[in-house]
Amino acid sequence: MSLDELEQLLTDAPERVSGSSSLDDLERLEGDLVGRRSLLSELRRSLGSVDPDQRPVIGARLNVIHQELTSLVASRRSALELAAENALLVDESVDVTLPGARPARGTHHLLTQTMDEVADIFRSLGYQVAVGPEIEIAWYNFDALNTPETHPSRFESDTLYVESFDGEERSGEDELLLRTHTSPMQARHMEQHDPPVYVVVPGRVFRSDTWDATHSPVFHQIEGLAVDEDITISDLKGTLAYFVREFFGADAKTRFIPHFFPFTEPSAEMHVWFRGGWLELLGCGMVDPNVFDAVGYDREQVTGFAFGMGAERLAMVRHGIGDIRHFYENDLRVLDQFR
Length: 339
Prior knowledge:
Layout: H1 3-18, H2 23-34, H3 39-45, H4 55-91, H5 110-123, E1 128-129, E2 135-137, H6 138-141, E3 176-178, H7 184-192, E4 197-206, E5 218-228, H8 233-248, E6 253-261, E7 264-274, E8 277-287, H9 289-295, E9 303-310, H10 311-319, H11 332-335
Parallel strand pairs: 1-4
Antiparallel strand pairs: 2-3, 4-5, 5-9, 6-7, 7-8, 8-9
Helix pairs in contact: 1-2, 1-4, 2-4, 5-10, 7-9
């Protein structure tokens, strides 16, 4: 290796340095020019073998060449860093005059929306909203509602019974079960409140139903109860007709078909005319006097009516949903339609 080679390296260095297109390329070139394995470093290490008279001259020249090469690399590095910074500013530029990005907005489940809307309609009529326990005793779920022990709804084929929490054997009126309707709150609310009573009870209920397009072992119901002096079946029909018009639209019509429920007498199914056909919507009737006796009301002083409707049924009719399972499968393609 000779000093002439190093001079030639210095001559070629500006073109090589300016040709580095990235900081990584420049770093590799810097190693070739002034690194530990470079020609410059080799000459410095060989200074000990140079004639003592020439050593200062050659050493000074090596220092100058090192400074010039280092300066070339530093200048090119500054230029590349500035270019990279400018490119980053362009790529990540933000127009502060534009509105910011908004995160996706959540919403209530369609069943929750339905129950809230129904509750609001009855609130506008002066009703209160009440909630009750999902694990009930047979007294409130059946006996207080005039349902005899022999009624089919009390069989295990219809009702889900649960074991006692304390290990105590329970039977008859004290037997524990998952409530089959929100109607137990009729008895619970009347026990705790003197008439008049106007209340709606939304909530989750449970039955031994097969999982299919129209049945689910877990679903949601909205119970209604009105108790006051001189309430008649006309009040029942007028109240429910108002609800139907508010929920389904002004053109919706109602009709009442005689039916049987243990806790109402007379009882009826209410059908609604919607989108060109009659659809069964809910059950209703005048409160059976035996229910008043069970909660300590004077059957001679008050009358009342009750009704119960499924939230899933309301949503399916209103929105044309053909399979109840869509509500529970968490498929966003379905749920996002009802934001």
